[in-house]
Write a structure and sequence with these properties.
The structure is a homodimer. Chain A is of the alpha+beta class and about 230 residues long. Chain A is about 45% helix and about 20% strand. Chain A binds a DNA duplex (30 and 30 nucleotides) through helix 8.
DNA sequence: CGCGGCTTTGATGTTCATCAAGTAAAGTGG
DNA sequence: CCACTTTACTTGATGAACATCAAAGCCGCG
């Protein structure tokens, strides 16, 4: 928890709060709460009452819920500037999805009351917020469509490229998720996710050391993601 | 086209415009445009410039785009009070998806400029709009998850129940879509959609006369939708 | 140090896509 | 209005893709 009013230095400021005047900024800044989470920590839980507007300052999280058989169903991964809590925040009283940290994560929480206040009194803020919301849902929907049109190999390749190109901006990285979680996200069985990874290793497209992945042949991986 | 200012009698008024004062109402009302579409007509096309805020007054539409192989991919069906044009309207300059009428459909168009104007000057309107947007994306995401966790029979049952319970509110109805379109929506092959329908017919759960469907055993159909 | 969860591979079975072929229905132009 | 073409619908047969089951090694954690 850190309540010092350092919001003017916050790199996320321009994303949402560029339109706030100094008085609005101070009000918001003085009552915002930052929270830190370790890998595996629960950030919000399906069913909990929604009281805050939550966004990611740093880290990585997964959004998920459970299907009827009690199996986890991962909806999306979110990184800073992605807008996690937004999905149901304005249409529900309680969260529909759970959010769990996959890496050390810092969130910034602002009460919904305060946000509602800003919407009521600052048109530019409303416009910005609406654009962000639109972006977020659009992105999730496009992800769903992207995955739906791929087969096993294509989906696994897509997933690896997601971490490599969008999260770590590196050809080598430590997978923040288990094989099982990848399976839950792309909608395939864990065993077949593993088989797909092994195949990519045998074809010398990636190297695998446990959770550590190195993409050796990026072009081929992209091709598999596009064609699969 | 019908530009008479009859918005106060419009049943959709309360959904979005309850917060407008009489002057705002008149401005909006005088410049809104209603359009009528026949079955099969294109309402908006992917790639077109977004200029209007479009909502359904009556009818039924499909949202779709094309995958790399040129095959249609149906994203969702929308009926009145569902908020079609909303998906990318505030995050893009052009439509990402096409919208086509499946039944005679009436839309009401308001320029984005006018809507932006309202957002800037009417906080309550902004709140209402944000809630609707949140609802819409939430619904689409939940649909995706619902379909993803079902098998062939479950998906077809789900689809039939959608038309029966959410669109026509009748046990008998005329399918507004082809078998192919059902397939494109639920992500299965056309042949297998037909086989699933035939199976339901053989099991005396539904009756089929071409496009006309009668649900005979609603309980069993619901069960298949839940378990499948 | 032992238990449970994660990972891996192989074997087997199910589900679904694809191909093929035919019928029915719905536009289309003379 | 009719022949013609195209599109939608239907069923069966085949094969591919994927899930499931089983068994074993590995790793982390209490």
């Amino acid at each position: 928890m850190d309540n010092t009013c350092n919001c003017n230095n916050c790199e996320i400021k321009d994303l949402f709060f560029a339109s706030l005047d100094s008085s609005q900024m101070e009000t918001m800044c003085s009552q915002k709460i930052e929270n830190e989470f370790k890998k595996g920590d629960i950030i919000t839980k399906a069913g909990d009452k929604i009281e805050d507007f939550v966004y990611l300052k740093s880290g990585l999280v997964k959004l998920f819920n459970y299907n009827d058989k009690g199996k986890e169903q991962i909806i999306t991964f979110a990184k800073p500037f992605d807008f996690v809590s937004l999905i149901s925040i304005f249409s529900n009283k309680t969260y529909e999805y759970s959010v769990v940290a996959l890496e050390p994560t810092v969130t910034c929480n602002i009460t919904l009351t305060e946000i509602t206040n800003l919407i009521m009194n600052n048109g530019t803020f409303s416009i910005n917020l609406i654009e962000k919301m639109s972006n977020t849902s659009n992105k999730i929907i496009n992800e769903f469509l992207d995955i739906k049109k791929r087969n096993l190999m294509g989906r696994v390749a897509y997933m690896l490229l997601f971490f490599s190109e969008q999260v770590y901006i590196e050809n080598e990285f430590e997978l923040p998720v288990s094989r099982k979680e990848i399976a839950e996200y792309i909608g395939m069985s864990t065993e077949n996710v593993i088989r797909a990874l092994s195949q990519l290793r045998k074809d010398k497209i990636i190297k695998i050391f446990g959770k550590f992945i190195e993409i050796v042949d990026n072009d081929k991986l992209s091709q598999i993601s596009r064609l699969g």
